[in-house]
Design goal:
This protein is an alpha/beta fold. It is built from eight helices and twelve strands.
Length: 251
């Protein structure tokens, strides 16, 4: 398969290594200093472009790839609120293809399935209140993480007593704490912590007077995310439309 890379930071370089090890060819690498390469024959020859950039750049990158008939796999977050409807239309009505996920880790896909199932069970036990904590490296500027938001929305879809999520508090890289006020009864509070070089930890807890139930996914490195992105590209090569992890792993 011919792959183009959009974004060539740590994640892009790791994706390149894994893609080559699986027998794929990297035909184009586009970063902030060579945007003109979107117009190149090399980019247009790609079967799939894998995009990991900033929220403010992602939507424009999709448009440039779609204009060349190139399918996109993207892990960029933060664009969906403003551009989600437009991207959905382009994929469902105009023949474009985007595989988007807030997290490409196979482990997170399994964790998400457990999260959904546990929320369905806990819907029967209102004595348990739910909260979430996510921990990431100090270079991650957004909070909560895209993965945390996805997990929270899964809980809200399956737990009748919660219909929204909120930021409970943020522990900043310098150790200072920003509190955002007490969560309402219908809200799922999320705590975000930024420390060290943590690739990503997500914990969901159900607490009652009698006991505490917690599920956690703890990423050992970013390599799992990179491998998942390449697996998604392999899936996307033969599929069309607006795709998600649930399409690739239907459990």
């Amino acid at each position: 398969m011919k792959i183009a890379l959009i974004g060539y930071g740590k994640m892009g370089k790791m994706i390149e290594e894994i893609a080559k090890s699986r027998g794929h060819e990297i035909v184009s690498i586009i970063d902030i200093d060579n945007q003109e390469d979107f117009e190149s024959e090399a980019f247009a020859s790609a079967d799939v472009a894998i995009e990991f950039t900033a929220p403010q750049a992602a939507y424009g990158n999709y448009l440039k790839a779609f204009a060349k008939g190139v399918k996109v796999v993207s892990g960029s977050t933060g664009w969906m609120k403003e551009h989600g409807d437009d991207v959905k239309r382009m994929c469902t009505e105009e023949g474009n293809t985007l595989f988007w996920a807030s997290n490409f880790s196979v482990g997170v896909a399994i964790f998400s399935a457990v999260n959904r199932y546990l929320a369905k069970i806990m819907n029967q036990f209102p004595q348990y209140d739910v909260k979430m904590e996510e921990v990431h490296h100090v270079h991650k500027l957004d909070h909560p993480s895209g993965t945390a938001i996805t997990l929270a929305e899964q809980i809200i879809d399956n737990l009748d007593r919660k219909n929204d999520w909120c930021v409970d508090k943020v522990v900043n890289p310098d150790g200072s704490v920003s509190c955002c006020g007490k969560a309402e009864a219908n809200q799922l509070p999320i705590t975000s912590i930024r420390e060290g070089e943590v690739p990503g930890i997500h914990s969901i807890s159900y607490n009652s007077e009698e006991d505490l139930i917690t599920i956690t996914h703890d990423a050992h490195s970013r390599r799992g995310f990179a491998l998942g992105a390449v697996l998604a590209a392999e899936y996307t090569q033969n599929h069309q439309g607006l795709l998600t992890i649930s399409d690739m792993f239907p459990f």
